[in-house]
TrEMBL record:
Cofactor: Mg(2+)
Cited PANTHER family: DIGUANYLATE CYCLASE DGCT-RELATED (PTHR46663:SF4)
Protein's recorded name: Diguanylate cyclase
A single GO molecular function term of this UniProt record: catalytic activity
Length: 298
């Protein structure tokens, strides 16, 4: 019996069963918060921060998952198992609420362990605040502020990557250009606030009409684009019909007699960005010449 090891122990405060090393490690984790802080300062990626922090926390508790919820979205560590019991803590820095950090563990966490986690949050606060600020700046640089769609600079980058992949793998893709018919009269008659509402609704229609592999962009004004993974024109036609049908049944669009014209083209590995864009643009003008509220291709 001398060699038998007890694998669980009862936490004295709440009667929670923990892995044999979970509470024991509280007093054996090296007390060197600077080493953790220095590691956290090596990245401005929120998910990367959570990975570093989780690696340290795993020395203290049986950690299955770690998430951070903020106004910038939900972030999590790699291979996070979020199906277990959650333990949620608010993170604040100088009266600024950064968000909530959520631990997922197979075992109940004693009050002592939770207090230890709260202590360690002080190492995470400043790196996390900096990463969130960087995330916001990055979003401003790549996202359209009104609709939340990717902007023109992102389009240029995505198009170049699509072409490079097309040349390597001999795979085709499509470019679709769209604008709104009669949009100017909305701004002229009802003001730019109503025009903004129309644009936001149209962006929502576009995002709900494409697949996860497709990307929607706003160039500015009422001009939009979609990059579509499509070896032929079949998917383009389906997406175009879906968009036009949604616009026809949308209340705000119907109320202001707004429709959409669409032009699209199939890109090949021999194309350059200007050639692809020029063909799709010609398709858009053909749709306009055909009476608008339709889709044409080149």
């Amino acid at each position: 019996m001398e060699n038998v090891h007890i694998l669980t122990q009862r936490a004295p405060t709440r009667g929670d069963f923990l892995p044999f090393n979970a509470q024991m490690q509280m007093s054996h984790v090296p007390e060197n918060p600077m080493s953790l802080t220095e590691k956290l300062q090596t990245t401005l990626d929120v998910n990367g921060l959570l990975d570093i922090f989780a690696g340290y926390i795993k020395r203290i508790i049986n950690l299955a998952g770690l998430q951070f919820h903020s106004s910038e979205g939900v972030f999590q560590m790699q291979q996070s198992n979020n199906q277990l019991s959650p333990y949620t803590f608010d993170l604040e820095l100088n009266s600024q609420h950064l968000g909530q950090i959520v631990y997922f563990s197979k075992y109940r966490l004693s009050e002592a362990l939770q207090a230890r986690l709260i202590q360690l949050h002080t190492c995470l606060l400043y790196p996390l605040r900096n990463a969130l600020m960087y995330q916001r700046v990055l979003k401003l640089a790549t996202k359209d502020s009104l609709t939340g769609l990717s902007n023109r600079s992102q389009f240029n980058e995505f198009l170049a990557k699509k072409l490079e992949r097309s040349r390597r793998h001999h795979s085709n893709f499509s470019l679709m250009l769209l604008d709104l018919d009669n949009f100017k009269q909305v701004n002229d008659l009802y003001g730019h606030k109503m025009g903004d509402n129309v644009l936001i609704e149209f962006a929502r229609i576009l995002e709900s009409s494409v697949r996860a592999t497709d990307t929607v962009f706003r160039f500015g004004g009422d001009e939009f684009a979609i990059l579509i993974d499509d070896p032929a024109f079949t998917t383009n036609k389906v997406i175009a019909e879906r968009i036009m049908a949604s616009v026809r049944t949308c209340t705000i669009m119907k109320n202001h007699d707004v429709t959409t014209s669409i032009g699209f083209t199939l890109a090949t590995s021999k194309d350059c960005p200007n050639e692809i864009f020029s063909r799709a643009d010609k398709g858009l003008y053909r749709a306009k010449d055909a009476g608008r509220n339709c889709a044409r291709t080149i």
